Amino acid sequence: MPHDDQDRHSLDCGNKSVDQLAELAGLIKRHTGRDGMFGTSVPSLHLICSSKTTLPVNTVYEPAIVIVAQGTKVVMLGGDNFTYGPSSHFVVSIDLPVTSRLIQASPEAPYLCMRLGLDPAQVLEVMKGAEAKDGREAKRGAFVDRTSPELLDAAVRLVRLLDTPYDIPHLAPLVIREIYYRIIRGRQGEAFTQFALAGSGTSRIARVIARIKQDYAQPLHIDELARMAHMGPSSLHRYFKEVTAMSPLQYLKRIRLQEARRLLLAESLDAADAAYRVGYESPSHFSREYAKLFGLPPISDIRRLREETVQEID
């Protein structure tokens, strides 16, 4: 293709993406109307709006594709930082305890994104039809990639279906398959499909994670988790860290502390009760680890969170 034609093609693609982002932002803003995360008539689709930047928030991300129309977010996983905005999308293929922060959002230009939950069976089906690589090595359970015009177009069409609910049962599954297909055919396609492949390193780590999340308050032994993953203890440690950017013990600690924080907020427990509920035998050890993760001891942290909530309401 001559240089002039290449330049015109690039310009056309750029203009198309700008128009698609503007339409996607308008659709999300219209279907949310205020700050928050909102379910939709498409069961796996949520829309998110936030009109202000945030301090770091600790949470567990479940498998999903996040496509941003406006604003910027950074997610911290272990020592990795993932920054994504309108030119990129974020994919989580496994449950991961992360720290996230909105770094670009305002009342005039709120953070607007769509979150599409992942269906492993459907991803596997699309993967086979797309003749994607069948890699088995464990991959990081999160990545950022560039949002192509084709992927953005599919995202716009999916959210646009919310205006015609009678079309959703017939067309939404097709558009979701296309979104999966676009990501599978992208640069991170092999990492994306790992979680859906039975026997892959990532899927075996997913089974271990499910056990940790289910029995986080019970004593868990590495040998037992390794047997569940059909690995030796050293292999489990290596694969687990490759997928989650942390060791099994560090992952367990994050899950316990985040659940303790939720209990302290929701049930007004004292620190010792919360510690025992999530599996700590020593309240003092719990308080030290809590302060290391959240920046303040339990009671001070919960007081701060409640004050911030009251200020937001006021």
From TrEMBL:
Pfam families: AraC_N, HTH_18
Organism of origin: Paenibacillus brasilensis
Protein's name in the database: AraC-like DNA-binding protein
Gene3D superfamilies assigned: Homeodomain-like
Protein keywords: Transcription, Transcription regulation
InterPro entries registered for this protein in UniProt: Homeodomain-like_sf, HTH_AraC, Tscrpt_reg_HTH_AraC_N
Domain named HTH araC/xylS-type: residues: 206-304
Organismal lineage: Bacteria, Bacillati, Bacillota, Bacilli, Bacillales
